[in-house]
């Protein structure tokens, strides 16, 4: 706390010098009134306490530029109550501080191009085709929170605590939600002193149950005074510019750490450009800072969701400067607010790297077509903007949610956490569907280019299997092809299973090579006659799935 004392003392003395006249108050009927030394000292003490209280409560950076309002008011009061040359000097100081304050307050009008440059993204057409052998991290955070709350009885002294903010990350190769146990009030903190640990829950398996991990934490967001994690960070890094909330990250051994993004103002205490993180051991309070090029391997969300959200805003709004974002709006694109964390949604790619997903739409009201979407690397902050197939019009995330709401209007189910994937070469929205109580009911997939093509299933893989069949039907000009290699095989049918899928039949069959295949009767009408013992020639896509998508089935003798 030594730094804030010294900072407050220097600021208080400076303000006292500006306010209190050296040569007394302006003359009255009895002449100029002298100001005693005790008045100067009392004023300095009062102002020092005022500055200390302000910076302690609001926890902002302790740079000299952050004193702008105090200096403006102090110089104005000093010029008003002084006389002669002293008044002239303080009036000049007031004018100088006024110009500086106007510069700070109007910086957003002039630094829009700099903001856009810091957030500029590489551009591509489409994301890679989703690996059909993987399961997307598609458990919505609302559902995860519900399950964790129901498992809160695992926490000792339950009445002291409540569930903290969710954070998704990869731990030992598994995608999981992490949520710390937090104090539920100042008196609970006073009695408890430490929080007992955190919850973890699979982000891919909706049937999994939460696990409580014991790991005592002293420095937390819900602690008070010097044990509050944000105040502790400010004490250790008084001049750093932080942006976004602190987040809990867990290493491969299950040890928790809190992290927070830091960086620089774009200009004049306005805007933000991320540079690195500060890592805190919540038990000991030990801190370390890392640049984005040097962060530990176990940290997934080095760049906070709030930072990514503001970068998306810079990129979408300031392509032609500030005034264009207000009036002409040429090439302006608005980032969606449908994300799960600060308007962005964390997802993982095929390599296990986390990215923040955001779709962009037109500023024109009533338009639900998507202009593009972005993926921002959560460790480096580097972003890529995908335009999508320019020959097609993609539906945005809000449009996908509206389709789900209309689909289940009687049940009052709603979609949460829509994410755009490239399924079988087709841009598609995958959205978990929750009931009014926040319980997961199914997974809904709808084509972004052809909204009439949609399916839902009890699991992401079940929905994908049905979506594959829907694409195979050829509706809307789709062929359901992925980047998988196309192959041919001949063999004898060992088992056949047929089930109704809309107006057509899905035929699943096992060959004597011990591989299973699936095809829709819309693509291959004669496949409905397939039976055990038939010799067939199959053209299929080698996707690596349990049921390989067949493109053509020729039955010998038929």
From TrEMBL:
Q: Which keywords does UniProt give here?
A: Membrane, Transmembrane, Transmembrane helix
Task: Report TM segments.
Answer: 6-25, 37-58, 64-84, 91-110
| Protein origin, superkingdom | Bacteria
Annotated protein name in UniProt: Uncharacterized protein
Q: Which organism is it from?
A: Neobacillus piezotolerans
Q: What is the lineage of its organism?
A: Bacteria, Bacillati, Bacillota, Bacilli, Bacillales
């Amino acid at each position: 706390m030594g730094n804030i004392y010294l900072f407050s003392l220097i600021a208080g003395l400076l303000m006292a010098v500006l306010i209190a006249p050296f040569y007394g108050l302006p003359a009255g009927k009895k002449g100029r009134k002298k100001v005693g030394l005790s008045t100067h000292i009392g004023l300095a003490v009062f102002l020092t306490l005022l500055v200390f209280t302000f910076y302690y409560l609001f926890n902002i950076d302790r740079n000299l530029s952050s004193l702008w309002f105090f200096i403006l008011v102090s110089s104005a009061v000093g010029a008003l109550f002084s006389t002669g040359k002293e008044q002239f000097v303080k009036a000049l100081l007031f004018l100088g501080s006024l110009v500086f304050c106007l510069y700070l307050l109007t910086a957003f009008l002039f630094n829009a191009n700099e903001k856009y440059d810091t957030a500029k993204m590489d551009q591509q057409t489409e994301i890679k085709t989703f690996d059909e052998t993987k399961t997307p991290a598609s458990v919505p955070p609302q559902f995860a929170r519900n399950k964790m709350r129901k498992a809160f009885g695992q926490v000792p002294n339950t009445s002291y605590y409540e569930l903290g903010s969710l954070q998704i990350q990869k731990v030992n190769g598994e995608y999981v939600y992490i949520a710390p146990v937090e104090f539920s009030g100042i008196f609970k903190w006073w009695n408890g002193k430490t929080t007992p640990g955190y919850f973890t829950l699979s982000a891919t398996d909706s049937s999994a149950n939460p696990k409580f991990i014991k790991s005592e934490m002293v420095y937390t967001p819900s602690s008070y005074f010097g044990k509050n994690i944000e105040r502790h960070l400010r004490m250790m890094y008084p001049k750093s510019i932080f942006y976004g909330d602190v987040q809990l990250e867990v290493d491969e051994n299950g040890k928790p750490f809190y992290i927070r993004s830091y960086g620089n103002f774009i200009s004049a205490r306005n805007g933000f450009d991320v540079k690195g993180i500060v890592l805190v051991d919540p038990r000991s309070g030990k801190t370390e800072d890392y640049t984005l090029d040097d962060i530990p391997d176990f940290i997934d969300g080095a760049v906070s969701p709030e930072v990514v959200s503001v970068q998306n805003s810079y990129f979408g709004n300031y392509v032609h400067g500030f005034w264009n974002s207000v009036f002409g709006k040429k090439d302006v694109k608005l980032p969606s607010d449908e994300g799960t964390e600060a308007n962005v949604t964390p997802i993982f790619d095929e390599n296990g790297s986390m990215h923040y997903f955001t779709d962009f739409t037109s500023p024109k009201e009533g338009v639900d077509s998507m202009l593009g979407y972005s993926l921002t690397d959560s460790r480096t902050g580097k972003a890529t903007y995908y335009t999508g197939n320019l020959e097609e019009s993609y539906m945005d995330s809000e449009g996908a949610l509206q389709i789900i709401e209309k689909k289940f209007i009687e049940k009052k189910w709603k979609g949460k956490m829509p994410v755009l994937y490239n399924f079988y070469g087709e841009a598609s929205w995958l959205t978990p569907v929750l009931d009014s109580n926040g319980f997961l009911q199914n997974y809904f997939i709808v084509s972004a280019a052809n909204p009439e093509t949609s399916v839902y299933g009890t699991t992401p893989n079940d929905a994908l299997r049905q979506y594959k069949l829907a694409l195979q039907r050829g509706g809307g000009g789709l062929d359901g092809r992925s980047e998988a290699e196309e192959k041919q095989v001949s063999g004898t049918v060992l088992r056949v299973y047929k089930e109704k899928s809309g107006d057509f039949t899905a035929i699943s069959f096992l060959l004597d090579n011990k591989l299973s295949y699936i095809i829709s009767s819309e693509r291959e009408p004669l496949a409905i006659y397939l039976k055990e013992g038939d010799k067939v020639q199959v053209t299929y896509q080698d996707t690596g799935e349990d049921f390989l998508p067949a493109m053509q089935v020729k039955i010998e003798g038929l």
